[in-house]
Amino acid sequence: MRIWLANHYAVPPNIAGITRHYELAREWAIAEGAEVTLWLSRFVHPRRTFITEEEKRAIPHVPGLHFQWLWSFPHKTNDVRRILNMGSFAALFLLTGLFKRRPDVIVASSPHLFTAFAGWMLSKVKRVPFVLEVRDLWPDSLIKMGGLKNPRVVRLLTWMESFLYRHADHIVVLTEHQRKFIRDKGIDPSKIELIPNGIVVGSWEPDPSRRSEIRMKMGVPEDHFVAIYSGAHGPANALEYVVKAGRHLEPGISIVLIGDGPEKEKLKRIKEEEQLDNVHLLDPVPKSEIFDYIAAADCGIISLADNDIFRGARPNKLFDYTFVGKPIVTTVDGEVREIVEKNEVGLFSGAEDPEGLAKALAQVRGFSREKLAQIAENGRRYIDREGDRRKLAKQFYQLLRTLVKKD
């Protein structure tokens, strides 16, 4: 089966960013013998630079997996150039795809809808099934975060969203909330499938000898209790409250934030102005290395803005932390909190509450060795049930196979 998989923000594991699509594509190529073309941008969104030839050469060769690198307009901040970045990628996906050999199925992923719309148009030209993957509920999340106020743009994106829901042959969502949201818009529930984020089990093994080295890179003392946040630094992540928790931390506790985004400079200013020596802001690291950083920490932080749109979030950090076996402190109410509490892998600290976060970290610091061992075991069981990327890739592939057979 020939599969086109398009995501503007997909990256291979030697680059920091979203590796879901690389991991799915690799699994389809290896385990299923599929011929997979992964469409992705040469402009790496988290760090705002273009991928280098050296980085491309470092990507492991996988028979059957092909990369289609597309140029997209460079940008540093979320201004009009960000829109040009999205539009240019989608336009080049459409134009380039017109001249490529026909696939058997096309999968295109949000968050922005332009790539997905280009994928649908290509599916009509090529006469193949189209699968919409919903990573984020656009434009609902933009509107509720106050980032989209132009009524004409709202109408356009709302129309595009509804059109894609109705005309996709199938819809894949990453959370239960997304499935309910789309179903409540009148879309047939049998057309929507939940395939959440996950982890490639066996892709990382703990190396205790690296703990001291990693802690030196973090800039934290060997004997400190370290809480780590890894991921995007944008308005949606509400990281100013995580940084401000440094005011309330007990002695011997440090917070480390790894990643990049439009809020990074603001977070640095907060740290400097309030002289928070117990908060450390690090540059992004590749997915292939992030597990070593998580392993060198003592717990993981999940943070999002206190907004209804995030009640249904299920961030990849949830799987990263449970895979490594670290307890979680989440500031996010809703689906994440339910998973954390139901599986007994951590605590809810309250939303946008620096003092509450500091108290929760102190509570986790006081956990016994036996309790921490049980949390690690609970996390492994959760990954086996709901977060094993190979099992999820198999589920996704069977869906694609069914659609192709119907066509």
SSE inventory with pairings:
Blueprint lengths: L1 E5 L13 H13 L2 E7 L1 E2 L4 E2 L2 H5 L7 E6 L9 H19 L6 E5 L3 H14 L3 E5 L5 H5 L6 H17 L2 E4 L2 H8 L8 E3 L16 H8 L6 E6 L8 H6 L8 E6 L5 H10 L5 E4 L4 H10 L2 E4 L13 H9 L3 E3 L4 H8 L3 E3 L5 H12 L3 H19 L1 H18 L1
Parallel strand pairs: 1-2, 1-6, 2-5, 6-7, 7-8, 8-9, 10-11, 10-13, 11-12, 13-14, 14-15
Antiparallel strand pairs: 3-4
InterPro entries: Glyco_trans_1, Glyco_trans_4-like_N, Glycosyltransferase_grp1
Protein name: Glycosyltransferase family 4 protein
Written description of the protein model:
The model has no long low-confidence stretch (mean pLDDT about 95). The longest helix is centred in the N-terminal third of the chain and has 19 residues. Strand 1, helix 1 and strand 2 form a beta-alpha-beta unit. This protein is globular. It contains 16 helices and 15 strands. A seven-stranded parallel sheet has the order 5-2-1-6-7-8-9, with helices on both faces. A six-stranded parallel sheet has the order 12-11-10-13-14-15, with helices on both faces. By secondary structure, the protein is an alpha/beta fold. The two termini are about 15 Å apart. This is Glycosyltransferase family 4 protein. InterPro entries: Glyco_trans_1 (IPR001296), Glyco_trans_4-like_N (IPR028098), Glycosyltransferase_grp1 (IPR050194). It comes from Polycladomyces subterraneus.
Q: How would you characterize the largest beta sheet? A: 7 strands, parallel
Structural class: alpha/beta
Mean pLDDT: 93
Q: Which band does the percent of strand residues land in? A: 15-25%
Q: Span from first to last CA?
A: 13 Å
Strand order across the biggest sheet?
A: 5-2-1-6-7-8-9
How would you describe the shape? globular
Query: Low-confidence stretches at least 5 residues in length (pLDDT < 50)?
Result: none
Question: Any idea what the radius of gyration is?
Answer: 21 Å
Helix content: 40-55%
Count, helices: 16
Number of strands: 15
